[in-house]
Amino acid sequence: MWKFFSLDEIKKSLLMALWFIFLTFPIMVIRVNPIYNVVEWRWQNMALVGAGAFFLSFLWRYFLEYKNPAPSKPADDAAVSRSGRFSELLRSSGTRRLAIGAAVILALAFPYLFSSYQVNIMTTALIYVVLGLGLNIVVGLAGLLDLGYVAFYAVGAYSYALLNLHFGLSFWICLPIGAALAALFGILLGFPVLRLRGDYLAIVTLGFGEIIRLVLENWNDFSKGPSGIAGIPRPGIPGIEMSLNASSVFLYFLMIALALFTIMVVSRLRNSRIGRAWIALREDEIACQAMGVDKTKTKLTAFALGATWAGMGGVMFAAKTTFINPASFTFLESAIILSIVVLGGMGSIIGVIASAFILILLPEYLRAFSEYRMLIFGAVLVIMMVFRPQGLISNVRQTYRFKGLQENKEGD
Amino acid sequence: MSAVLTINGLTMDFGGLRAVDKVHLDVRQGEIVALIGPNGAGKTTLFNCITGLYKPTGGDILAIPPGGAAKRINGLKPNQVTEIGLARTFQNIRLFPNMTVLENVMIGRHCRTNSKILGAVLRNSRTRREEEEIVAFSYHLLERVRLERHVNDFARNLPYGAQRRLEIARALATEPFLLLLDEPAAGMNPHETRELDDLITRIQEEMDISILLIEHDMKLVMNISDRIFVMEYGKEIAVGTPLEIRGNPRVIEAYLGEEAHA
Ligand SMILES: Nc1ncnc2c1ncn2[C@@H]1O[C@H](COP(=O)(O)OP(=O)(O)OP(=O)(O)O)[C@@H](O)[C@H]1O
Ligand SMILES: [Mg+2]
C-alpha cells in the first residue's frame, strides 16, 4: 500500500495534475463576460482541478493495481473468486428467483408509483433493452460487428408509419410486418457481407445504416424526407377509448411484454443448436465450418433474427413518439445500442438488460447536472472499459450434470 | 479392402508457389495412413484441399463412404465435406475457447441434427429429445478421450494435451468414416504421446473409422500406421509400409537434408 506514495508515484500524479490543468484551462479558468466585456480568471478552479486530478490519479492507480494484482502475489486466487462471485450469485437459483420476483413486482407497480414522465422514460429504456438483446445476437453471440443496426430500427419505425399513413393499417398488424420487413433487410444486408469480417464488416454495415438514413432523408415522395411523419397513432385495444395517460401506461406494459418475450426467445436460442453454432462462428470461423456448420445459413439467421427485434423496437418507437423523422436514426443510435451490448458483456442477457437501463436512464437522471451529464456518461463508459473490459457479466455458459461424474469428482 | 479416399494428381498453387504437386494418395477402409515430410512439404495444404478450406487448382479428390457411391469433393464447402463424413483436427489447435468442453463437442453434432429456430424457441418435445441425445452422445465421446472430468470447463483452460484430445472428440462427434489428424502429437510429452497412440488405434478398431494423419513423431508413425506417404516440396516421393519407408534412401535423404539445414 505504501508504495503508492513513493517519489515516483507522486511525480506521476503531479504530471497528471498538470496535464488536467492544461486540458481544462480554457473552460474551467477563463470566462469571458460579454456584458462587461472583461475576462474573468478563475484561478481557484485551476487549483481545484489540479488538486482533484492529483488525488484521483492515486485512486485510479490503486484500483488498477487492485484489479490486476502482480502475479507474484498469492492474491491471485482471490482475484479469480472476486470476479466469479457475482456470476456465482446469479447462478444460485434462490437469489435468482428472489431477484426475478422483485423485478416483476416493481415492473408491474411502476406506472402506479411514478409519474407518466417516468413511465415514458422507462418505456424508452425497455425499447433499448429489446434493441440491445437483438444486437446481442449479432454482435455478442455471432461475433459480427454490426455498426448499422439502427437501419433495421428505422425500417420497423417507417413500416408502421407509412403503412398506417397510406393504408391505415393498425399497430397490431404493423408489428409483425415491421419485424418481417426488418428481417428481410437483415438478410439483404447479410448477403453482401458474408465474406467480410471484423473491421471490413463494421465499415460496410456502418455504410448500410447511413444509406438507409440518407434514403429516408432524401426520397421525399416515399418518406416525406427530413420533415418526417407525424400523427402516428398510439396502440390501442379496438373499441376502447384511452386517455393520453392511460395509453402511455398501456404502451409501457406492451413494452414489458415485448421485452419478456425477447428475453425468453434469446435465452432459449442461446443454448440451442442454432445459438451454439453462432457462438462457434464467433470463436473460430474456420473450425466452425470444418465441424459441419453452414456459415452462410448461420450468419444470415443471425442477421435476420437480430434485425427482427430492431424492427419490433422500431414499430414500438414510432407508436410511442407518434412522430418520426430520419434524425432519430443516426449512427449515434447504433453506437449507443452497441455500447449497451459491450458494456453488458458480449452474449450475456442479464448484463445487456442491466446496461440498457444504465446507459439510457443515467443520462436522463443526470439531467440535473445538465451540461456535465454527457461528460459523466462518457466517464462511466471509460471507467467500465478500464476496469471490466469483459462487460458487466462475462461469458456464463450452461453447465450440465452427469451421473457418475460426481463420484469421479469426489474421488480425486 | 475398398478405398474410402482417393486422390488423383492433386495440385495446389499459391500464386507462383506450387505447394502440392500432382499428388496421388489413397486410404482404404480400416487403414491408418500416415503422411510425413519435412516442414513446408505441403502436408497441411493437402489436408486443407481435402477438407474444403482450399479449392485445389487441379486433380480429383474422391470420397467413398463405406457402402456408398464415390463423390468428387473438390471445391465443396468445408461443412459439406464434413457432412459427407470426413472430419479433421488442426495443426495449431482451433477449439472454441470460450465454450465449454462439452459444447465444443456438441458443435460437432450440428450437421447430424436438425432442430430449427422455431423448435428452439418453442422447446417442443422433439427439440428437447434431440438436445438430450446431443448431450449424451457428446459426453460419451468425452469419456472416450478421458475428458469427462472437464465437461463444464472452458476449453481455453484445458492443458495442451487435453485440448488436442478434445479436438479429436469434436471431430468424432460428426460421425466421420475418415478422420484426418494434423500433427496430433505436436507439443505432447512422451507419456501423452503413448496414450495418443493408443487412442488412435482404438478409434480405428472400435469405431471402425479410417485414419489419415500427419505426424513428425516417427516413433508414433512407425508404430501405428499401415502405410506411409512421404512428401517433399509438394511432391510425393515415397509410399509404403513402415518397414519399406524406414529403408527408403530418398526418404532418409529428405529428412537428413532437413536436419542439415536446421
Ligand atoms: N494460404 C497460403 N498462401 C500461400 N502459401 C501458402 C499457404 N498455405 C501454405 N503455403 C505454403 O505452402 C507450403 C506448404 O505449406 P504446408 O503448411 O502445407 O506445409 P506442411 O507440410 O504442413 O509443413 P509443417 O510440417 O511445417 O506443418 C509452404 O511453403 C507454405 O508457405
Ligand atoms: Mg502442417
Give a short synopsis of this structure.
The complex is a heterodimer of chains A (412) and B (262). Chain A contains 17 helices and 2 strands. Chain A is mainly α and 412 residues long.
Distance, first to last CA of chain B = 40 Å
The span between the termini of chain A is: 39 Å
Order of helices and strands of chain B: EEEHEEHEHHHHEHEHEEHH
* Mean pLDDT over the residues of chain A: 83
Global shape of chain B = globular
Arrangement of strands in the largest sheet of chain B: 6-7-8-3-9-10
Biggest sheet: strand arrangement of chain A: 1-2
Please mark out the parts of chain B with pLDDT under 50 across 5 or more consecutive residues, or reply none.
none
Q: Give the strand tally of chain A.
A: 2
Description of the molecule:
The complex is a heterodimer of chains A (412) and B (262). In chain A, 72% of the residues lie in helices and 2% in strands. The model of chain A is unreliable at 71-84 and 406-412 (pLDDT under 50). Chain A contains 17 helices and two strands. Chain A folds into two domains: 2-67, no CATH class; 127-387, no CATH class. The longest helix of chain A is centred in the middle third of the chain and has 27 residues, at 244-270. Chain B is an alpha/beta fold and 262 residues long. Chain B is globular, with a radius of gyration of 19 Å. The structure holds adenosine-5'-triphosphate and magnesium ion. Magnesium ion binds at residues 43-44, 91 of chain B.
